From TrEMBL:
InterPro entries in the cross-refs: Mrp/NBP35_ATP-bd, NUBPL-like, P-loop_NTPase, YlxH/NBP35
Provenance organism: Simonsiella muelleri ATCC 29453
Binding-site list for ATP: G94, K95, G96, G97, V98, G99, K100, S101
SUPFAM superfamilies in the cross-refs: P-loop containing nucleoside triphosphate hydrolases
Family, as annotated: Belongs to the Mrp/NBP35 ATP-binding proteins family.
Protein name from the UniProt record: Iron-sulfur cluster carrier protein
Keywords for the protein's UniProt record, in alphabetical order: ATP-binding, Hydrolase, Iron, Iron-sulfur, Metal-binding, Nucleotide-binding
Gene3D superfamilies (UniProt xref): P-loop containing nucleotide triphosphate hydrolases
Pfam families associated with the record: ParA
Amino acid sequence: MNQIINNIVIPHTNRTIGSEKALISAKECSGSLKVVLQFGFPAAFLANELRQQITQHTGQSVELEIRQRILAHKVQAGIATIEGVKNIIAVASGKGGVGKSTTTANLATAMAKMGARVGVLDADLYGPSQPTMLGVAMQQPQQRDNRMIPVQNADGIQVMSIGFLIDPDQAVVWRGPMVSQALQQLLFQSQWDNVDYLFVDLPPGTGDIQLTLSQKIPVTGSIVVTTPQDIALIDARKAIDMFNKVNIPIMGVLENMSVHICSHCGHHEAIFGTDGGKELANKLNVPLLGQLPLSLPVREAMDAGTAGNLHAQYEKIAQIYQDAALSVALAIADKGQDFSNRFPKIIVESQK
Ligand SMILES: Nc1ncnc2c1ncn2[C@@H]1O[C@H](COP(=O)(O)OP(=O)(O)OP(=O)(O)O)[C@@H](O)[C@H]1O
């Protein structure tokens, strides 16, 4: 029986229950098969499909329990991890306006709907947009014991943004060290509540600020967003080089605005070119996480702060983000664990 279950392919992946060592137990109990599976990535959303698969393959009625054990994975050497946060995913773009914030908000929404505990830190000081996109612009973080409590949105995403604290007009004149300081304060002094994946929406570009941040934030992996347009691709390549330089693994490239689909006639028009992000990912040997069309409902949902509704109403769009989020979660699950918190700090004192 175990062998049959182990051979079942996990929906939306090319992995099996066996390859993920997910089977905890399978016992027959009063005429049905009670199966317990445990995954290192968000898998609650797979419950129905998995139950059907197991029923089909075993010919028995199945009672399925899914457990998630998402662990903290390795970050850059010498950087302290953050209390209440297991994995940080930096979302970057070389060029501005390519949809980095849109991608962050939607990947976070997809991940939350898949069953993970998710946070979003809006580090885009010059244009903080996560509070609007995630529908919490009218709220403010509470304070407790000198720490800020992130605001929760309708999908349970914990949101912190520099936009809650400062006037963006003021931030425009900030210099690199101030930006870095403010961001670290937001990250380290917020009371994150057991977050599996924290998405950090970085400012656009690959200058000193981004480099400093990637050296100071404990990042498990990064995502680079680009449009298929040549000038965006050149900058996306710089962002990839930047992450390579600081040893942050690149979980993939997401190509945004890949094609425009006319909402009246369904005609496809490649406004920003075709497959640029895909070719870049191939060339640099990083995964392509997905290709998202330029779509009116996406823009409307971002302006209205209703990403959750967008995913409920537009299945194709939701599927693209879900596939991308799942690829990222699987890539993280494959990484080594972070044990930095378990070891005592060793201080070497030099003698004169
Ligand atoms: N696939 C898409 N379809 C339709 N509109 C989109 C799409 N992606 C992004 N947009 C819209 O394009 C605008 C810019 O997107 P967004 O703010 O996410 O870009 P950004 O890269 O984060 O920009 P910034 O340079 O401010 O960091 C927003 O109004 C957003 O709603």
